[in-house]
Write a structure and sequence with these properties.
By secondary structure, the chain is mainly alpha-helical. The N terminus is likely disordered.
Length: 218
């Protein structure tokens, strides 16, 4: 016995949806098959920007992990500006971790630090920080530094630089003293001149008759 099936009638909305889906599939196929490119966007399009994660420097990573010696090694690698190196040293001083960062080093590991100190200790903005670091190095390694020819050479150079700096400071102190003496004499001279001018003006006022006296005499 033959069974007949009746085709189910679709509503107008369903017909519209099917046609749209077929049109979208054809458009996508044509776009890809003809080498279409991505939409470049217009001024009215809304752009969602991805958040950039700031990449930490290697020395900063070690610093955050409390690996102070490794942080000092990283910043002295030659990749960073002197101000960055000094900033890290200041941070180590602030944390009370400078001794930890400087300790347990041989002459090879100390060489970059001593070279940096020797090169930049005369610059005024770095002098105070690097002086503290130099004192710390000498305090820790005083007994063994002379045993290494490399360290001895760097220490002699550092000593010569500091000696020159001290001598210049002494000369500046002498010049400052002479300047203060000259300025003091100049101030005294100006004060004396001012007193003399005031005295002369007072004497002129005393000698010159007043207008009332002149009228009476007339």
């Amino acid at each position: 016995m033959l069974s007949l099936r009746h085709r189910r009638q679709m509503t107008a909305e369903q017909v519209y949806r099917v046609k749209n889906e077929e049109t979208l599939r054809r458009s996508t196929y044509d776009f890809r098959s003809h080498g279409g490119t991505a939409h470049e966007g217009t001024q009215d399009d809304f752009v969602v920007e991805g958040r950039r994660v700031k990449r930490l420097a290697l020395y900063d990573k070690h610093l955050r992990a409390f690996q102070y010696g490794s942080a000092l090694d990283a910043v002295l690698s030659g990749k960073y500006e002197p101000v960055t190196v000094v900033s890290l040293l200041q941070e180590l001083i602030h944390r009370g971790a400078l001794r930890t960062a400087v300790s347990r080093r041989d002459d090879v590991a100390l060489e970059p630090l001593l070279k940096f100190i020797t090169k930049y200790i005369r610059q005024p903005r770095y002098a105070s920080t690097l002086t503290l670091v130099a004192e710390m190095v000498l305090d820790i390694y005083e007994a063994v530094l002379a045993e290494s020819s490399l360290m001895a050479k760097l220490l002699h150079k550092l000593h010569a630089i500091i000696h020159m700096e001290v001598r210049q400071q002494q000369e500046l102190t002498c010049v400052m003293g002479a300047l203060e003496m000259v300025l003091s004499m100049s101030m005294l001279s100006n004060a004396a001149s001012h007193r003399e001018s005031m005295t002369a003006a007072a004497q002129e006022d005393a000698v010159e008759p007043s207008p009332a006296v002149m009228k009476t005499n007339a």
